[in-house]
Every structure is written in C-alpha cells, then in structure tokens.
C-alpha cells in the first residue's frame, strides 16, 4: 500500500463513521508539566499522537506520531489506558469512533520545542494541571486522559 491507512480507508467509505486506532503519549518535564500541541487541523490543544498504520503496533505508533508532531524521540515507560468510547468529526467532515492507546513517555532526545512547527503542530507548550484546566480548547477526551494521568486513577470502560 502506497498511501497511509486513513487515506486508503477514506477512499472506500468517504466521510462515513469508521473506527480508527490511535496512539499517543504524555511527556512531563522536570516541573511536572505536560507537553501539549496546538493542533493544525482543529486549532485545539491536545496530547501528541495519531493514527495507527497497517502492521504497526500501538507503541510504534505512539513513538512515530510523537516524533512527527514534536520532533522529540521518545520511548514508552508505562501503558496508561485505552479509550474507546469517543466519537468526533474532523474539519474535513470525516467521522470516527476512536480507539486511543495512551502511554507515559520518556524523552530519549533533546527537548527543543521553542520553534517547532509543521502542518500538524502550530505550537508546543508545557502546561501544569491548573493551566490545562484553564484552557478552553481541549477536547473532553483529552481532558479525561490528562485528569486520569494527574490523579493516577485509570478507569476501565472509556
């Protein structure tokens, strides 16, 4: 297959709702703040991560997507949870039910976020739990993931 999985599946089903697998991760700095990205598509703050490709594990997806969206090489140090009960529609009209695997990550390369920007990421910034609570543009799904991380309480059945 010469195209990415989402493009392939969308060529078959158009914008109809599909189930897609995603993986991402939470990277915390020495001050206990979480790295978040300002997304290029939705203009919202989010946990870096993205769609799984055919033949790719959730760990490999989390590492690849985190690097693509932040420029930081990471490795998972702890599996946190899987979230399966969220639906969303993207600005292009694509509708999905997401299955998201979230990991706690450790940087294995330098963290240089000041000038990082690409099509997927408009800005990177570390936020405290209190600062995240004040952000208006964080999805319900990502708020839940972050709250579970900060409280170290991971519920089943999301």
Q: Roughly what is the average pLDDT, rounded to an integer?
A: 95
Radius of gyration: 15 Å
Major β-sheet strand ordering: 4-1-6-5
Report the portion of residues in β strands: 35-45%
Structural class: alpha+beta
| Largest sheet descriptor | 4 strands, mixed
Share in helix: 25-40%
Number of DSSP helical runs: 4
SSE sequence, one letter per element: HEEEEHEEEHH
Word description of this protein:
This protein is of the alpha+beta class. The chain has 4 helices and 7 strands, in the order H-E-E-E-E-H-E-E-E-H-H. The chain has helices at 5-13, 58-70, 129-134, 140-151, and strands spanning 18-27, 34-39, 45-46, 49-51, 74-89, 95-107, 121-127. The strands form 2 sheets. It has a 4-stranded mixed beta sheet with strand order 4-1-6-5, with helices on both faces. A 3-stranded antiparallel beta sheet has the order 3-2-7. Strand 2 (34-39) and strand 3 form a beta hairpin. It is globular. The N and C termini lie far apart (32 Å). The model has no long low-confidence stretch (mean pLDDT 95).
């Amino acid at each position: 297959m010469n195209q990415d999985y989402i493009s392939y599946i969308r060529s078959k089903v158009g914008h109809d709702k599909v189930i897609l697998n995603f993986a991402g991760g939470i990277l915390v700095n020495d001050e206990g703040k979480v790295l978040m990205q300002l997304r290029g598509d939705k203009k919202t703050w989010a946990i870096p991560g993205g769609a799984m490709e055919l033949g790719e594990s959730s760990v490999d997806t989390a590492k690849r997507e985190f690097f693509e969206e932040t420029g930081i090489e990471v490795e998972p140090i702890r599996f946190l949870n899987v979230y399966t009960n969220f639906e969303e529609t993207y600005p292009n009209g694509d509708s999905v039910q997401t299955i998201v695997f979230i990991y706690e990550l450790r940087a294995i390369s330098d963290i240089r976020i000041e000038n990082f920007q690409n099509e997927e990421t408009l800005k990177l910034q570390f936020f405290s739990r209190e600062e995240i609570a004040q952000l208006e543009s964080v999805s319900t799904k990502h708020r839940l993931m972050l709250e579970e991380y900060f409280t170290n309480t991971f519920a089943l059945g999301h």
